[in-house]
Write a sequence for this structure.
């Protein structure tokens, strides 16, 4: 960050040939007025309050529950005293107070800035966690776009990857499971939409995402059952049998397996796994079968 110098430090005078003394006097008065105005603006913006005083004011406001005002004080510390020892502390506190006051975009910016400037500092785990929490708080209903869910997942994964031993790792892992379940739910919702309209190929593509990316979510049983139904409706019996067989092997007591089994039996078939199927291979990679 560049240091801000008083405007007069950058002001120079030059004499122009042919300008009358009276005109030069007028120009000088105008220039002086402009410089004075600029000085006044800068003095209002940077009032010379010491870094420790600004920081302690921010702490007092935080303790009083005035998080939005506290965030403003911490921002001033970093802007007015970027090289002081309070600047780093103020930045992490700005992330916290912005998050607490519901200013999630500002919290994300402060948290990311802290992580960039201090990548190995222990508090960077907290900065990344605040970023993840800020996205997590904005996760919408499953019927809407899931960009925030994806960002929350990525942020929480960064916490776990970079700081696996931190005190935030356990909750980050829990949030990862929640976001993955949400993303799987979105795929299921769209897949059902296509299935109801007999667009079986499009439905299969959505259920396939759940099977390949979100096997540990609560949606996996239904996804396999829906694959059985979709493939069977297309006449791709071997894949329908494989989906049902994998479902029965992993979730033998599932109501979804009973439905898939009944569907096949009504057509004279039974669950039968084809090891060459993408469904079988997807589960083999995770060790679930």
């Amino acid at each position: 960050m560049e240091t801000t110098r008083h405007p007069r430090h950058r002001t120079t005078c030059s004499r122009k040939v042919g300008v009358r003394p009276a005109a030069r006097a007028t120009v000088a008065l105008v220039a002086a007025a402009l410089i004075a105005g600029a000085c006044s603006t800068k003095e209002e913006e940077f009032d010379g309050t010491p870094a420790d005083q600004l920081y302690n004011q921010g702490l007092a406001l935080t303790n009083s529950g005035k998080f939005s005002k506290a965030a403003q004080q911490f921002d001033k510390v970093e802007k007015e005293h970027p090289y002081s020892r309070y600047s780093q502390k103020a930045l992490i506190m700005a992330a916290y107070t912005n998050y607490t006051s519901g200013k999630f975009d500002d919290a994300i910016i402060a948290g990311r800035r802290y992580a960039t400037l201090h990548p190995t500092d222990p508090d960077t785990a907290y900065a990344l966690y605040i970023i993840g929490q800020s996205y997590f708080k904005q996760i919408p209903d499953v019927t809407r776009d899931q960009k925030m869910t994806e960002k929350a997942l990525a942020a929480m994964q960064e916490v776990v990857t970079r700081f696996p031993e931190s005190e935030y790792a356990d909750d980050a892992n829990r949030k990862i499971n929640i976001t993955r379940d949400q993303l799987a739910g979105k795929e299921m919702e769209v897949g059902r939409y296509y299935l109801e309209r007999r667009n079986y190929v499009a439905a299969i593509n959505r259920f396939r995402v759940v099977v390949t990316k979100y096997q540990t979510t609560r949606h996996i049983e239904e996804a396999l059952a829906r694959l059985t139904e979709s493939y069977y409706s297309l006449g791709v019996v071997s894949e329908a049998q494989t989906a049902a067989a994998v479902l029965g092997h992993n979730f033998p007591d599932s109501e979804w397996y009973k439905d898939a089994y009944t569907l096949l039996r009504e057509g004279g078939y039974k669950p039968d796994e084809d090891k060459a199927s993408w469904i079988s291979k997807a589960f083999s990679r995770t060790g679930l079968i």
